[in-house]
Design brief:
Blueprint lengths: L13 H20 L3 E2 L5 E3 H8 L4 H6 L2 E3 L5 E4 L4 H10 L9 E10 L11 E10 L4 H18 L5 E6 L6 H12 L8 H9 L10 H8 L10 H16 L5 E2 L11 E8 L9 E7 L3 H4 L7 E7 H10 L12 E6 L5 H11 L5 E3 L6 H10 L2 E7 L1 H6 L1 E6 L4 E6 H13 L2
Parallel strand pairs: 1-5, 7-8, 12-13, 12-14
Antiparallel strand pairs: 2-4, 3-4, 5-6, 6-11, 7-9, 9-10, 10-11, 14-15, 15-16
The protein binds histidyl-adenosine monophosphate (HAM).
Histidyl-adenosine monophosphate binds next to strand 6, strand 10, strand 11 and helix 11.
């Protein structure tokens, strides 16, 4: 009997949870700032939602879905991503019938049966946003800006934004014709999956991670060069807006992103500091035909999602520290002996109104207490020994700045609070 968590899943607690909570809190604030409202959809859907939404010949649908029959024999699937579910919900509840764009965000666990590695899990978490009903390239720029701002707010500095356009129903067939005639004499160089993709859905060959297929694709025609006037104008405007917003980008002509629903603008945020294939922290794009394919009105849309787990891992690797609750630093109250506790309780009663405080409930060696505080992201340590307790004095260490201050509790409380607030 195996009582460990299933392969590719994780129990998240302690420091790891702190990173994730910080990412979620930051994203939620930012989504609200950009006027996106939260939506929650079920963790599983009728399998058809993903088969139709994501596309029958994508890797996700072909190989990665957790699909099962319920007791009535209905085929259900644990959601591998959020967009198809959100679109299903928008149509079911006619959420598109109010002012457009409809702007929603979500946060939840997703499931893909992939080979687990660092940053690639079978149960993982995404934060995403979708904007429905507007085809103006301004909204493409807003979504990309939002993605960019999110990583900036989290403290990242050197991420890269890749963009591309994969055209529309008008221009894509022209490209695919060229692409297929380029591939035809090279079919023997492709892997067995890509040989099937050649017949079923050649665009998906761009998703293949195998070096030999990447080599073939690298020298072939690029969809960007086959865009119709409308798609070309659209991506040119998106690029102009990105320039206006001072957002750095790189056009990556081989970017297609493994979903069939995308049209026109697609983008991905990657970190070159991650040397594995798991270097994409987030991505998104336009999906102008998905809503009508689902039986809804003919309505354009665009969105993105970031991987919370991958982002948390990279923050930890790069030593990006989550800012503390309320933007204030956490305070560790260290009693040097039993007699310190009445004063410690008096201080914590005041400080806990505004700050996260923890008390050492068992007096120990000061050095090891300070080490523990530093390791656990406490910005300050208040040290109360016998003298401090009897004279109501506070010795406080700024752990990050390696500075120490003394305050008289009865007369300098406000000064102490200003210090903690960073004033
Ligand atoms: P995606 O690129 O498949 O896009 O996923 C978004 C992010 O989720 C990835 O960049 C990655 O950070 C994370 N992710 C994906 N798979 C895993 C995994 N197995 N383990 C850990 N993290 C993972 C989408 O899902 C689209 N629905 C995004 C979108 C929204 N497009 C339009 N609207």
């Amino acid at each position: 009997m195996d009582l460990n968590s299933p392969r590719g899943t994780a129990d998240i607690y302690g420091k790891d949870l702190k990173y994730r909570n910080f990412i979620e809190d930051t994203a939620k604030k930012l989504f609200k700032n950009f006027n996106y409202a939260e939506i929650k959809t079920p963790t599983f859907e009728h399998t058809e939602v993903f088969n139709r939404g994501i596309g029958e010949s994508t890797d996700i649908v072909q190989k990665e879905m957790y699909t099962f029959k319920d007791k009535k024999g209905r085929s259900l699937t644990l959601r591998p991503e959020g967009t198809a579910s959100v679109v299903r919900a928008i149509i079911e509840h006619k959420l598109y019938s109010k002012r457009l764009p409809l702007k929603v965000f979500y946060n939840g666990n997703m499931f893909r049966y992939e080979r687990p590695q660092k940053g690639r899990m079978r149960e993982f978490h995404q934060l995403g946003a979708e904007a429905v009903g507007i085809d103006n390239p301004v909204i493409d720029a807003e979504i990309i800006w939002l993605t960019n701002r999110l990583f900036e707010e989290l403290g990242f500095k050197n991420l890269e934004l890749l963009i591309n356009s994969i055209g529309c129903v008008e221009c894509r067939p022209n490209f695919l014709k060229e692409f297929k005639s380029y591939l035809e004499p090279r079919l023997d160089k492709l892997c067995s999956d890509c040989k099937i993709r050649y017949y079923k859905n050649p665009l998906r060959i761009f998703d293949c991670k195998k070096t030999k297929c990447k080599e073939v694709v690298k020298n072939g025609p690029k969809i960007f060069n086959y865009l119709c006037d409308n798609c070309r104008k659209h991506i040119d405007s998106v690029i102009d807006y990105l320039k206006k917003l001072n957002i750095k980008y790189e056009i990556n002509y081989n970017l297609v992103r493994g979903f069939d629903y995308y049209t026109k603008t697609i983008f991905e945020v990657i970190s070159k500091q991650i040397k594995s294939a798991q270097n994409a922290l987030g991505g998104g794009g336009r999906y102008d035909n998905l809503i009508s394919q689902f039986g809804g009105p003919d309505m354009p849309a665009i969105g993105f999602a970031i991987g919370v787990d991958r982002t948390a891992i990279l923050m930890e690797q790069l030593k990006i520290k989550p800012k503390c609750f309320n933007g204030f630093k956490k305070v560790y109250l260290i009693a040097m002996e039993e007699k310190s506790y009445p004063f410690i309780l008096e201080i914590s009663k005041v400080l806990r109104k505004d700050f996260i405080c923890e008390i050492n409930f068992k007096p120990k060696n000061l050095g090891s207490e300070l080490k523990w505080a530093e390791k656990n992201d406490f910005g300050f340590a208040v040290i109360i020994g016998e003298e401090e307790a009897s004279e109501k004095k506070i010795t406080i260490k700024d752990i990050e700045e390696y500075k120490q201050y003394e305050f008289d509790w009865l007369t300098q409380k406000d000064k102490l609070i200003d210090l903690l607030k960073g004033k």
